[in-house]
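tool_call predict_complex ligand=adenosine-2'-5'-diphosphate
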Amino acid sequence: MRLISVTIGILALIVCTTAKLAPTIRLSSGYDIPVIGLGTFESTAGDAEQAVKDAIDAGYRHIDTAFLYGNEVEVGNAIRAKIDEGVIKREDIFITTKLWSTFHEPEQVEKAFQRSFDNLNLGYIDLYLIHYPVSYRRVLQNIRLPSDDVNAFYVFPVDKDGKSQTTDVDYVDTWLAMEKLVQSGRVRSIGISNFNSVQTDRILSIATIKPVTNQIECHPNLNQRKLINFSGQRNITITAYSPLGRPHTQSGKKLAISDPKVLELAQKYRKTPAQVVLRYTLQNGAIIIPKSTNKNRIQENFNIFDFELSDTDMQIMHDLNNNYRLINFESDKDNKNYPFNIDF
Ligand code: A2P
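tool_result ok
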C-alpha cells in the first residue's frame, strides 16, 4: 500500500515537473518573464490560493497580484507550498505585485512595498508596478488599525457626495522612490500600469532605472496597437490585463470572445474562442495575464503554444478593435494625471 502511494507521489511529481513551460522574453533589467501569467484580479483570497497551485501544476511560472486585490498572502502561500512540495524553486517563479494609489507620496512607497513584500513572503519580488498614475487621498476607514498601517485606509476613497478623492502627487516622484526599492535588493524590476504614452515618456525623461513593462488593458476590442508600438520603440514590454475582455461583466455581445468570426477561427484551429483571443494578443506583441480560478479554464488558457494565427487571421482579429475600454476609472477623469483622456 505504502509502495503504491509512494509510486503515485513520484508519478505526480514527474507529471508536474515535466509540465511544458511557456516561452519567456528578456526585460530591459536583464531578467526573463514568461509570456503568460495567471491574473488574480477579483480572485477572492480563498480562491486565489488554489488557483495559483493549479496554475503552477499546469505550467504557469508567472503570477500577477496587487495590494489592491487583497490576496497577496494567499498567492505567497500557494507559491511557497509548491516550493515545499519540490515542484518549483523560488527562482522558477516570476511574481508581480503593485503599489496602490493611496501610497504615491515618496515616503509612503517604502512602507506600502514592505507590506506587499511581507504578505508574499518570497524573499524578493520580481516586478513591482505603479498600479495607476492617479494618486488617492488616504482616508481612514479602519479606526482599530494604527494610522501607519497600510490596511487602515479606503482603497477607493470618496467624499460624502460619492466623488473620488484624488490628489496631485506627481508619479515621477513616486517613480524615484520605486528606484530605491531596486537599489535595496528586494525587487528585481520595476514598471508602470495604466500609463499613457506621454506619462511613459515623462518617466523615461527622469529615470535612472527604466520601467520594464506597462501593464494595460488589452484584448481584441482594445488592441492597443499604438501603445504597443510606442513602448516597443522604447524597449518597454506591454503586459495585457483582462486579455479575455472580462466576459463575466459584459453581456458578451460586444466582445471578441463571442464574435462569430472568432468562433469560426476557433473551429478552424480546433481551439476554443478564449484560446484564439489569447493567442491573438500574444501575437499582437503583449505578455498576457488571463484571470481564472477554474482549474479547467486555467489549463485551457495556458494551452496556446501549439498553434499560430496566420497573417490573414491576425488581420481579421485586428479588425475587431473598437477601442472598447472596460476599466476606465471614469470618476477620476478630472484629475490631471488621468491617463485615458488622450488617444494612447
Ligand atoms: P473564471 O475565473 O470563473 O474562469 P479577464 O482575464 O479578461 O479579466 O477575464 C477573466 C474572466 O474570464 C473571469 O471571470 C474568468 O472566470 C473568465 N474566464 C477565464 N478563462 C476563461 C475561458 N477560458 N473561457 C471563458 N471565460 C474565462
